[in-house]
Amino acid sequence: MTAVKKGRRKFPLFKGLFFTANLIVVVLFAMGYAAAYIPPDRNWIFAFAGLAFPYLALANIAFAIFWLITGKKYIALLSVSVLIISWSRLGGYYRFHTGSGRPADSTGINVMSYNVRLFDLYNWKKNKISENAARQFQLLAEQKPDLLCIQEYHAGRSGKVDICDSIIKYTGLKHKYIAHVSMDGKDKPYGIAVFSRWPLTGTGIVRFEDNPVNFCQFSDILIGQDTIRLFNVHLESIKFSREDYLFVTDLRKNQEDQEVFAENSLKILQKLKRAFISRARQSRKLSEEINSSPYPVIVCGDFNDTPSSYAYHTISGKLNDAFRTGGQGFSQTYAGALPSFRIDYILHDENRFSANSFSRIREPLSDHYPVVANLSLVLKDE
């Protein structure tokens, strides 16, 4: 009888601990939801909860299932309630196929955004592009974009490889605007680039304070009788080193040395914090440029941040997200270990464009997967 009584005491204690853990997860989940509204340069702790937001959602699902199985339905409501409240935010990570999406419109505008990682520059040999770079060009030809936004563009090697000519050859996009990184008064051979099927009537650059490498370009494009403004942006990178990625991908092994584990963990957290803060400032500046545009807007680029982030929320503003309206399934666009999930986007004016389709091309030719959207432009006279 004594053994039975001891067993009965342990089970309520376990449930109590489980309930406490559930409360902690709910609070963190709420902080992750609030991260979209709280600038990291004012309070950065919420940004970390925002990064963990989808994982916290899964934890809440697990808690809800546990309480339902154990007959504690009223406790399960705690997790179920916060999941319902945040349902629209979760739609930025996963979109169920509802059958409401339209097929790609052959007369629509095919928009492609792709961080090409310098076209695999460091694997070129004897001034010949690598196999990955060659496959990237073939992929561009297969997708047949009308508007192509490239981040981490590289011009090639002078007199040996001309990337611009190759892109025009494979895509047929003759109109271009290439914006180079400028440092110490000199243009570098890398930056961001836009290629268009239609003429460009104006171009410009949005520079970010104290950062010559990450910036935004915009191009005014004449399509029929309409002019649209296309923004191509590359926000602040986390700047993880190779050692950082190795640490993240093999955490179990690294935990064996607690001192090294603590040091490396702190270094990674500091890099994330710095990037969160920088992107907050950059996103506010970009948002001002978007809101002041005299033309309908399309925004493409590598935000280096997730759909629950302040940067994404600030930039998207009144714009529609092509994935939310035309995509389905999971949306991970980063091919590395961290940050996972969706960090590459195609956003568009909610009144002048509609998204017929959205897709992520799962080709591991860079550390990013390209994203493609087919957009319909509502003409002025319609």
UniProtKB/TrEMBL annotation:
CDD domains, per the entry: EEP-2 (cd09084)
Domain of life: Bacteria
GO biological process, one term: GPI anchor biosynthetic process
Molecular functions per Gene Ontology: endonuclease activity; exonuclease activity
Protein name: Metal-dependent hydrolase, endonuclease/exonuclease/phosphatase family
Protein keywords: Endonuclease, Exonuclease, Hydrolase, Membrane, Nuclease, Transmembrane, Transmembrane helix
Domain Endonuclease/exonuclease/phosphatase: 112-211, 280-368
Sequence intervals crossing the membrane: 12-38, 44-68, 75-94
Any single Gene Ontology cellular-component annotation: membrane
InterPro entries named in the record: Endo/exonu/phosph_ase_sf (IPR036691), Endo/exonuclease/phosphatase (IPR005135), GPI-anchor_lipid_remodeler (IPR051916)
